[in-house]
Specification:
Low-confidence stretches: 1-14
Helix content: 25-40%
Mean pLDDT: 94
Strand content: 5-15%
Oligomer: single chain
Structural class: alpha/beta
Shape: globular
Order of helices and strands: HEHHEHEHEEEHEHEHEHHEHHEHHH
Bound molecules: 1-deoxynojirimycin
Distance between the termini: 17 Å
Radius of gyration: 22 Å
Number of helices: 15
């Protein structure tokens, strides 16, 4: 990395004051179900986040990103949204959300929400209306309905596969009981894809953005940001294998990832965000194989930042990391955007458990790719601690996934019958999915539930915690010399004082 590129990407200031805060912010990811349970039902909630805002603030981060908290049947842990303008009752109320935003702001923390525009829940009022409306009706035109192929339409409209495995199409039974049209779902069948060619869909999402911006929210993380636009005619891809979330190499014209027309949507969103004072911001979840294609989302009239999944997926190897860092800084500097750095999130094996395995020469992030590789957690912890220091020293913004500051490993032995991720069943139980990084945080105490819930709670945490987590609790590490929590706090203090 040369000095000129570092200077170009370097933060002007390292605080949340000023409109450019997002260029250098450290953002703490709150996976709400698993952060802290305030109500005692074993599921994390807004009350729990409000209780622990001082913890987040003392860690030394600038902002929090909260995973979807909207009403949802929870077929994909909230990424199946039934109502984009309210709060899931399990998590709290809109009034509590408003208080949380104000309390975070009072501590100098920005609040970023998660918006899910590629698909809604099948329980969303729009999809329910589509189900009882005829083929070709305006209600169906908000989603992607098509007749089937083959005799009597018994074959799906094309060969697209769900990211969660299996066909990306499900056939409807029409209200009169006859087999009918098929609808597209790039994820679970309960997550029908919206039709972004329909102006009504575009208007609705801009209005949803305004709803939350008016409540004081500072920005959005955009789910599956590269998937919204589908190629007209919905052509076959030509292979019937699992469709990876990762977009194709730049030379491939893929019918549903990274279509050029997608950028137009985000120009509209940017105009909405810029109409606020201070302007609101976006971070794209766009899994692209090509750093230059990714940087197109970050042109000055589009999104502000995008997760750097090349960094997240890189093996712990110096040359590999150096190349990813150089390439990322180069690609983002072409459009004047900062790079973002991230090692873990709620979709991938915790980096401590990735780095604790033999580091091969390939990118890896799913448990299914590494379950049979032996893991040395002591090695993983040492590498994870070094990695944090590396990440916080890089120019740009950085993400911390809740629990990484406690040195938590992936929980790889959750009993089959307790797994919740739809990936497990949809993969015919081949892929155990993402629950292992979503286990509720240990806050204190000597035994499960490690103060995840209040003392008088009437339920166990929604996923079981390992019995040996006493040493990982925030209470055990608070003030303890050499603990991972204190390492994170010290590193973030240093980052602030030496931008
Ligand atoms: C990406 C989210 O991070 C993941 O958790 C979710 O399953 C898919 N998008 C579908 O919304």
């Amino acid at each position: 990395m040369n000095k000129a590129t570092i200077a170009a990407a370097a933060p002007a200031s390292n605080s949340t004051t000023g409109n450019d805060w997002w260029r250098s912010a450290v953002i703490y990811q709150v996976y709400i179900r698993s952060f802290r349970d305030g109500s005692g039902d074993g599921i994390g909630d807004i009350a729990g986040i409000r209780e622990r805002l001082p913890y987040i603030s003392e860690l030394g981060v600038d902002a929090l990103w909260i995973n979807p908290w909207y009403p949802s049947p929870m077929k994909d842990a909230g990424y199946d949204v039934a109502d984009y303008r309210d709060i899931e009752p399990l998590f709290g109320t809109l009034d509590q959300a408003t208080l949380l935003i104000a309390e975070a702001h009072a501590l100098g923390l920005k609040v970023i929400l998660d918006i899910v525009p590629n698909h809604s829940s099948d329980q969303h009022a729009w999809f329910q209306a589509a189900l009882v409306s005829p083929a070709g009706s305006p209600d169906r035109a908000r989603y992607v309905f098509r007749p089937g192929r083959g005799e009597d339409g018994t074959l799906p409209p094309n060969d697209w596969q769900s990211v969660f495995r299996g066909p990306a199409w499900t056939r409807l039974t029409e209200p009169d009981g006859t087999p009918g049209e098929w609808y597209l779902h790039l994820f679970a069948p309960e997550q029908p894809d919206l039709n972004w060619d329909n102006p009504e869909v575009r208007e609705e999402f801009e209005s949803i953005l305004r709803f939350w911006f008016d409540l004081g929210v500072d920005g959005f993380r955009i789910d599956v940001a590269h998937g919204l636009v589908k190629q007209s005619g919905l052509p076959d891809i030509g292979y019937a294998d699992r469709d990876e979330l990762l977009g194709p190499p730049s030379e491939v014209d893929h019918p549903h990832w990274d279509r050029d027309e997608t950028h137009d949507i985000y120009r509209g969103w940017r105009a909405v965000a810029d109409s606020y004072s201070p302007p609101r911001v976006f971070v794209a979840e766009a899994w692209l194989a090509d750093a230059e294609r990714l940087s197109r989302y970050l042109r000055t009239d589009e999104l502000h930042t995008a997760f750097n999944f090349d960094f997240l997926r890189a093996p712990w190897r110096a040359a590999w990391l150096q190349k990813v860092i150089d390439d990322s800084i180069h690609a983002t500097s072409l459009v004047g955007a900062p790079s973002t750095w991230v090692m873990s999130n709620h979709d991938v094996v915790r980096h401590l458990s990735r780095y604790g395995r033999e580091q091969s020469d390939r990118q890896m992030h799913s448990l299914v790719d590494m379950a049979d590789m032996p893991v040395d957690l002591a090695v993983g912890l040492r590498r994870a601690r070094s990695a944090a220091l590396l990440m916080f020293a890089l120019p740009g913004s950085a993400y911390v996934f809740q629990g990484e500051e406690l040195g938590l490993p992936e929980v790889e032995d959750i009993p089959d019958e307790l797994l919740q991720d739809p990936v497990f069943e949809q993969s015919q139980r081949v892929d155990r999915g993402r629950d292992g990084c979503r286990v509720p945080l240990p806050w204190g105490g000597e035994a499960a539930p490690f103060d995840f819930s209040p003392d008088d709670a009437n339920a166990q945490p929604w996923l079981p915690q390992p019995s040996g987590w006493a040493a990982f609790t925030a209470a055990a590490q608070d003030g303890a010399d050499g603990s991972t929590l204190e390492l994170y706090r010290a590193a973030l203090r240093l980052r602030r004082s030496e931008p």
